Structure formats: C-alpha cells, structure tokens
Amino acid sequence: MTDTQPSDTEPQTTLERLRRQLRGLYFGRDRQAIRFQVALLLVDVAILAFFITGPYLRAGSAYVAVDLAIAAVIAFELAARALIAPNLRYWLMRPMTWVDLVILATLLVPSHLHNFAFLRVLRIWAISQSKLVTLMLYRTGNGDKEDIIEACANFLVFLFLVTGFVYSNFFYGADGFAGFVDALYFSVATVTTTGFGDVILPGTLGKLTSIVTMIIGISLFVRLAQAIVRPYKVTFPCPQCGLSRHEADAVHCKACGHVLNIPDEGA
C-alpha cells in the first residue's frame, strides 16, 4: 500500500500554474498578453499623472483613497514580479524593485516619508523601459528613434526628480500649485543654465542642489540634443547575425565581428 500526499504536490502545482500564467501575460505576444501589457502601461501613465499633479490634489478628500489604491497596484506588481522571477536574487537586483519599494513606502506612510515622494517620478523611466514601447516603435517603423525616446525619458526623469526634491525640501509649505510651479521653474532655469535668479534655494543644501542640477542637467540636455541631431545608434541589420542596432561609426558588428558597410548620411 502506497501513501499519497496530494497536499504536498497540489499547492506547488497551483503555484506553478499561476507563475506560468503570469509569465505569459508579462512576456507573451498573443492578443491577451498584449492587452494585459497595454493595461499595465496605461495604469503606469495614470499613476505618473497622479504623482505629477499630486501637489494640486493633496487637499482633496479623495487623495488618500487614490493614494491607497495606487499602493495596492504597486504591491500587486511587486508580488507578481517576484513570482515570475527566476529566483529571489534576480528580483532583488532589479533597480525598479527597489524604486517600487520606496514608492510603496511613501504611499503607505506619506506623513513621514513625504520628502522621498519625488522618487515616484522614476515611473517615467519604468515606462520608457517597457518592452511594449520598444515593440510599438519597431512595429510603427520608428525603431531608429529608440535613442531619442531614451534620452527624452532620462532628461524628464532628472528634471522632475529635481523638481520633486526642490518642492519637497523648499516649497512644500506653499500652496500646491504655486509651490510646485516655483520648483519646476527653478529646475528648468537651472538645468538649462539660464539662471534668471528670481527663484533661488537658500542655505548650503540649496547651493549644493543647484550645483548638482547644473552639472548633471546640462550633460543630459547635450545628450538629448545629440540623440535628436545625430543618434548614437542606427538601424542597419548585420548580414551575418542579423543584429540591427549599431553605433553610427561602427566598422564591425559587435555581436559576430562581421564587417559592416553602414551608409554615412553626412557624406
């Protein structure tokens, strides 16, 4: 007589089934998976819009409810990502895992962590890194604009990170609209090195913030201009291995070493 232990195997089977379903939804290319990924992208955009407009809405009665709803969505995505990850180490090594954990903490205890709320803007970077965005670019024939999209995303992330930091530490006591606009105005004037000087940050922290903003901001601004005028990479499929993205001045394919003959647009 053999003993069967369905209770030991059934939970594992259910867990594996759920894991396969989630992986299919997150990484699949069928109609159901695309719909799921589009829904996640729209949710990310809606969350980002709420974060950016948060300073105007924080006095509203529905603000806390929306705040907790977003926390539930981010908690669900964290759990789903952990479930489909190959192992816990891989999940913990993802930069967006830690970003989402910090964002979740700021949503759950906003009274104590409001100074870190500016990190929520990193959702812009998460949206730009979505494989669905890359797929849409290539399907619409705009794959060569991937560098421009990435440069714009990096610039916007930095701009709104600085704006959020300045607002949280220097203008949080002001009215939502006026304080946020002052923070954004200062960030744009500093990043572009225009420096009108009518809005300045007091104290040592203010000076250090201005210095870091100017140094990093102008670098990202130049990178954005380069990406628009002359992208770092061009679309030219390698005849040997098929790799389609190469540096504009590449002589050999970085994947297989095959000699390339990329046309020089400036010639």
UniProtKB/TrEMBL annotation:
Keyword list, A-Z:
Ion channel, Ion transport, Membrane, Potassium, Potassium channel, Potassium transport, Transmembrane, Transmembrane helix, Transport
Q: Name one GO molecular function term.
A: voltage-gated potassium channel activity
GO cellular component term, pick one: membrane
Q: What domain of life does the UniProt record list for this protein's source?
A: Bacteria
Is Membrane one of the keywords UniProt gives this record? yes
Q: Which residues cross the membrane?
A: 38-57, 63-84, 91-109, 151-171, 208-229
Q: Which InterPro entries match?
A: K_chnl_dom, K_chnl_Slo-like, K_chnl_volt-dep_EAG/ELK/ERG
Q: Which Pfam families match?
A: Ion_trans_2 (PF07885)
Record membrane topology: Multi-pass membrane protein
Ranges for domain Potassium channel come to 157-229
Location of the protein in the cell: Membrane
Q: Which Gene3D superfamilies match?
A: 1.10.287.70
Q: What name appears for this protein in its UniProt entry?
A: Voltage-gated potassium channel
